[in-house]
User: Which sequence fits this backbone?
C-alpha cells in the first residue's frame, strides 16, 4: 500500500467504469442502461457517462426505440446500446519454425479468417518477416477486411521477447533482432505487439474459458520443444529476464549434463519432446510386433507422433507401453510446476497434445505419483490456433487501452 | 478488464489516497502538507482530506507550529503532521515444532520486544496454544505494552493454512484444527491472522528490503524441512489448494519413490534437509581425517550442522566436500524454481542458511549449472525472526485495512 503514488486519480475510475460497461455490452451484444447498471453495479449517471465515452469512440451505437420509429414517448425511453463489433479488426499471428498462421477477428473476437502457411524445413529469419506480411494481407483479403480497419496486431514467436523485441530465438535461425514489428507497423499503421508464443497461448486459453483474473493458469507447449506460459492473478508471469516457464531446460538428474544453452535443446525436451518420442517409438517397433510399425513407416513427417496415440487408443500393448514411458518422462518435468505453483489448471497444447485422452490419462497418472494434491490437467481445445488467438487477445487489450487513452482515460492516471 | 464490477467507487480512491499519505508520513516520521503533496502527487484538498481521516483515526497528529507556540501567523502556516507510532501495537508469532517466538512492535514496525521459547523434542498441539498465549503476554510485558493496545496479531505456522485455519500440520502432532485463533482473539480482543510460516517469511523479507509490488521474490526455508514462500506481483502466491511452494516434496528421480504423504518427509528434504546433512557429515567423518569429527561429537543438538560450515570456511577439505555435496542436492531442487519463475531474487532462510558465504557460493555454483540465466540468490538477513516479523507485517496490513474501513473507506468499495 505504501507504493501507491500518483496513479490514482478520477481518470482511473472512469477508465475502470468504461471498461466494465464495454465488457458487459460486448458479452451481451445489446443492452439497456438498466441492464448495464445491474451488471456493473454502477449508478445511472456513471453508466451514461461511460456509454457517451464509448459512443464517441465508435465502439457502441445507441439504438433508437424501434417500436415507435424513434419518436419520443412520454417518460424515459428504454435506451438500448449495441456493441459495434465491426468498428475495427484485429490480427493475431503465430510465427513458428515450420509454420506461420494469421487469424483475423472483429472487435468481439469472432474469427473472420484463419490462414496457415507451412514450409518444409525451418524458416530463415530474413524471409520470415516477408512471409508474415504476405500471410497477414492474405488473411485480411479472405476476411474482406481493409488494412485501414486493423486496430492492432499481436504476434507470437518462440524465444525470449522483451519490450516487443525478439532477443533470442534459437529455433529460427536469424530471427533474433528481426524488424517484423517495424515492418508491420509501417504496412498497417497500427500498434504491433510481439510476445513469446506460450505467453500468448495461455492468454488465449484463459479467454476461451472465460477465466477471470484470479488464480493460476499454465499452458504447457508439448511439441519438438517444451515451454510453459503462466497467467498468475490475471497477469502474464514473464519473469525477471523474460525467461519464466522454460521447463524444456529442466535437468532433473543428479549430475547435470552439459552446460545449458538456448542454442541446443534442453534436457527435458530432449527426452520428452516430439523427436525423442519418435525415436523411442522407432526403436521399440524394431524389437516388438505391433501394427504401429507400418503406420510409422508410412508417415511423411518424421515428427508426426500421432500413430503412436492412435494405436494406443485402439489398445495395442506396444503403443500403450510407449505412451506410458513418454507420459512418465513428461510428468517428471511437469510435477515441479504443480508442487511449486499449485495451479488451478494446467493446459497441455502443442503437437504432442493431440495424443488425446490416452495420453492425458497416462500423464495425469504419472504426475499424481509426484504431487501432494491431485493435478488438474486438460488438453487444449484450441489446437494449433492458440498462439494466433492469443495474439488477437493481446491486440484487443491494446486496442481497448488505446480507446480509453484517446478518450482521456488511462489506467496509469 | 471485463471482470471489473462494483468494486470501483470513490471509496476505493479515498482509501488509496489515505493509504499513500499514511505510507509517506510513516516513512518520514514527520511531514508538511507540501511534503505529502510532493511525495504522493495528490492535490492539497485530497491530502488534507486524507490527513483529516488519519487524524480522526488517531494514526497521525497535527503539530502546531513550534516556533510561535501555536499562535496563528499571517499567511498559511506550514502545518506538520507526525506519525503516531505509539497509537497501537502489533504482535507477530512464530509457531514451530521446536520453538515459539513472539515479537511486539509499534505501528512503525519498530521492535519493542522479542521473546523466544525453545523446547526439547517436539511440541504437542494441545499445549502449544497455551504456550503461545503465555509467550505473547510475556512479550507484551517486556515491551511495556498493555494488551488493550494490541491492534492485531499475525501467526505463522508450518502446514497448510487456509482462511485462518490450520488444516494440516504434520510436523506438529495434534496441531491441525487447533483453536489458537479463537483463543488469541478472546484474550486480546483483536483480529488474529494465521498463515503458513514461509508465506510470512517472504512478506518479512520483502518488507525488510523495502520491496515494492513488482517482480517475484521467493523465500526458501532450509531446515529439517524445505518449503518456499512466493511473493508474485506484490501478492502472496498461495495456490489453488493453499499448497504452493512445497519444494520439499520434489521427487526428481526417474522412478518416483513411495507415494508422497505430508505425514512423512518429502523426497527432497529427506536428502537435503538438516537431518540428511548431519547424517552425511557423520558418515564422512568416520572415514576421513578432519577437525570436524570432534566438533560434531561435541555438539548437543544432533540437527546442528553449523560445525560443517565452520570447518569449511576455515578451508578443511573434508568439510568443503560435504558442503559441495549438500549444495549440489539442494541446487537440484532449487533449479526448477528458477527455470519456471525466473524470480528477481531467491532468499534462503532457516537453520541451514546460517552456513553463510561458503554454503551460498556452493549453492550458487550448482544452481548456475542448471539454469539459463545466472541465479540471484541471497541468505536471509532476518535470521530466525523472519516468520514472526512476517506476522507483524500481516497484522499491520490488517490494521491499516481496519483503519480505513472504520473511516468509511474500503479497498472493496
Assistant:
Amino acid at each position: 500500500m505504501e507504493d501507491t503514488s500518483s496513479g490514482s486519480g478520477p481518470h482511473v475510475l472512469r477508465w475502470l467504469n468504461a471498461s466494465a460497461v464495454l465488457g458487459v455490452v460486448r458479452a451481451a451484444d445489446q443492452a439497456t442502461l438498466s441492464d448495464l447498471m445491474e451488471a456493473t453495479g454502477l449508478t445511472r449517471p456513471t453508466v451514461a457517462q461511460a456509454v457517451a465515452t464509448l459512443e464517441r469512440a465508435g465502439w457502441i451505437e445507441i439504438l433508437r426505440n424501434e417500436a415507435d420509429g424513434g419518436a419520443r414517448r412520454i417518460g424515459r425511453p428504454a435506451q438500448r446500446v449495441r456493441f459495434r463489433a465491426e468498428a475495427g479488426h484485429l490480427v493475431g499471428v503465430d510465427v513458428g519454425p515450420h509454420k506461420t498462421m494469421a487469424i483475423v477477428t472483429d472487435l468481439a473476437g469472432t474469427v473472420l479468417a484463419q490462414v496457415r502457411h507451412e514450409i518444409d524445413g525451418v524458416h530463415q529469419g530474413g524471409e520470415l518477416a516477408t512471409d508474415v506480411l504476405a500471410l497477414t494481407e492474405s488473411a485480411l483479403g479472405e476476411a474482406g477486411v481493409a488494412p485501414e480497419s486493423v486496430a492492432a496486431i499481436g504476434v507470437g514467436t518462440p524465444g525470449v521477447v522483451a519490450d516487443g523485441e525478439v532477443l533470442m530465438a534459437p529455433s529460427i535461425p536469424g530471427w533474433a533482432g528481426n524488424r517484423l514489428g517495424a515492418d508491420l507497423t509501417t504496412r498497417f499503421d497500427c500498434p504491433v505487439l510481439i510476445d513469446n508464443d506460450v505467453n500468448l497461448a495461455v492468454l488465449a486459453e484463459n479467454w476461451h474459458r472465460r477465466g477471470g483474473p484470479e488464480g493460476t493458469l499454465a499452458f504447457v507447449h508439448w511439441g519438438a520443444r517444451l515451454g510453459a506460459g503462466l497467467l498468475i492473478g490475471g497477469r502474464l508471469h514473464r519473469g525477471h529476464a523474460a525467461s519464466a516457464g522454460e521447463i524444456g531446460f529442466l535437468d532433473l538428474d543428479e549430475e547435470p549434463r552439459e552446460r545449458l544453452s538456448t542454442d541446443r535443446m534442453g534436457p527435458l525436451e530432449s527426452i520428452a519432446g516430439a523427436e525423442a518420442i519418435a525415436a523411442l517409438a522407432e526403436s521399440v517397433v524394431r524389437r516388438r510386433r505391433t501394427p504401429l510399425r507400418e503406420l510409422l513407416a508410412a508417415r511423411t513427417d518424421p515428427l508426426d507422433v500421432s500413430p503412436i496415440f492412435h494405436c494406443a487408443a485402439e489398445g495395442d500393448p506396444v503403443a500403450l507401453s510407449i505412451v506410458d514411458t513418454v507420459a512418465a518422462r513428461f510428468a517428471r518435468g511437469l510435477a515441479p510446476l504443480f508442487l511449486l505453483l499449485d495451479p488451478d489448471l494446467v493446459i497441455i497444447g502443442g503437437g504432442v497434445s493431440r495424443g488425446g485422452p490416452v495420453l492425458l490419462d497416462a500423464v495425469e497418472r504419472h504426475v499424481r505419483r509426484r504431487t501432494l494434491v491431485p493435478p488438474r490437467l486438460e488438453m487444449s481445445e484450441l489446437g494449433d490456433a492458440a498462439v494466433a488467438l492469443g495474439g488477437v487477445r493481446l491486440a484487443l487489450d491494446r486496442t481497448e487501452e488505446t480507446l480509453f487513452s484517446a478518450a482521456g482515460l488511462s489506467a496509469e492516471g
In short: Residues 1-8 of chain A have pLDDT under 50 and may be disordered. Chain A has 13 helices and 15 strands. Chain A touches chain B through 72 residues (CB under 8 Å). Chain A has three domains: 10-83, 87-190+391-402, 208-381.
